[in-house]
Design a protein that fits this description.
alpha+beta, two-stranded antiparallel sheet, 4-stranded antiparallel sheet
Length: 352
């Protein structure tokens, strides 16, 4: 994939150097530049400008004196190459800007600026591969919020999966997998470990456990009602199910698939380019296992309860472990990129 300055048709760059995001194979645009908006008390503005103005990855720096009302002070905006965002945010946090003001990050999907283009080119690393940890952490906290929407989606997905088991329908199993919201909370476990945000880890565990418990109990009640009405029979649960037997048959491949899917899911969450979460949802057998637990409990089939619980734990453990490993590797790589940026600042040169 080739990035070129936006000029006239045919790649003429004689006008002005400017850039647009690369377009991925799935049509999603990569965002190489982020707009940084800072609200800061007036006495801290010069320190903030010192962090921004001295960094080669920053372009379009603006100061609006006295424009902020709460907190009273100034508004500072700048365009920052995505690859350098972590270092910039870290410098601002060291000043305590997030304690006394605010730091906001917004993607710049289309930009026309020679200075911005050259700043992005000078910055080591790839915009598509860069991980903006502030964004990842915020989305992780949002994913671990135990609210009505999360419980509703989890319960509805589990109910659909139980119907899929009764009717032995792979289509309904896939639908239940896609509907389930649990991956964000599972991935947040890896973020908590890598970034040492242990409160986030507790929230993630709470959300995953209580979400599945609530969904299983609700589905159990509905299964008991269906049993009383004669809509669901023991044969539906223990009879031959060639299309859905994998739900209660954990093996080594269950763990391997969970590892691979967990790594792919984390990359989808952290990368500026990848959009593979749907494939992750379809690959892991968490929600269907929960549905089978509820059905087996309604009919007292102990063996299927045990096997389904094992399948659920294997998949969650595999995704969490893969998420932690992937994030740890990304953290290591980008810490080295930060060192490389410091060396590049000492010896400026054009870096592709």
């Amino acid at each position: 994939m080739v990035r070129r300055p936006l000029g006239v048709a045919g790649g003429d760059t004689s006008g002005f150097g400017c850039g647009i995001g690369d377009v991925a194979a799935d049509g999603r645009q990569t965002v190489p530049v982020l707009n940084l908006r800072i609200l800061v008390p007036g006495e801290m503005t010069d320190d903030v400008l010192g962090v921004l103005d001295g960094d080669a990855s920053v372009s379009g720096l603006t100061v609006l004196r006295g424009a902020a009302v709460r907190p009273a002070g100034d508004v500072v905006t700048a365009n920052v190459a995505r690859e350098a965002t972590n270092d910039i945010v870290a410098g601002l946090r060291e000043l305590g800007v997030h304690q006394r003001g605010s730091i906001e990050l917004q993607p710049v999907t289309t930009w026309l600026s020679r200075g911005g283009f050259e700043a992005e080119i000078r910055t080591p690393g790839s915009a598509s591969d860069s991980v903006v940890w502030a964004d990842v952490a915020q989305r992780s906290y949002e994913a671990t919020e135990l609210n009505w929407s999360y419980l509703s989606f989890m319960t509805l997905a589990t109910v659909i999966s139980s119907i899929a088991i009764i009717s032995d329908s792979q289509v309904l199993v896939i639908g239940a997998m896609v509907l389930g919201p649990e991956f964000g909370a599972v991935a947040a476990l890896g973020v908590a470990l890598v970034r040492r945000r242990y409160a986030l880890g507790w929230l993630a565990i709470r959300t995953v456990v209580l979400g599945f418990v609530a969904a299983i109990l609700t589905t159990l009640v509905l299964a008991l009602i269906g049993r009383a009405l004669g809509w669901v029979t023991l044969e539906d649960v223990v009879g031959p199910r060639p299309s859905t037997a994998f739900i209660y048959s954990p093996d080594k491949w269950s763990f391997i698939v969970a590892l691979v899917a967990g790594a792919a899911g984390v990359l989808s969450l952290t990368s500026a380019k990848a959009t593979g979460l749907a494939g992750v949802f379809i690959s892991v057998t968490t929600v269907p296992a929960a549905g089978n637990i509820a059905l087996a409990a309604a009919f007292g089939v102990g063996s299927e309860i045990v096997d389904s619980c094992l399948q659920l734990l294997v998949n969650i453990a595999g995704m969490a472990l893969a998420g932690w490993g992937t994030l740890a590797l990304q953290n290591l790589v980008w810490s080295r990129i930060s060192v490389r940026r410091a060396r590049a600042a000492a010896h400026p040169r054009r870096m592709l």
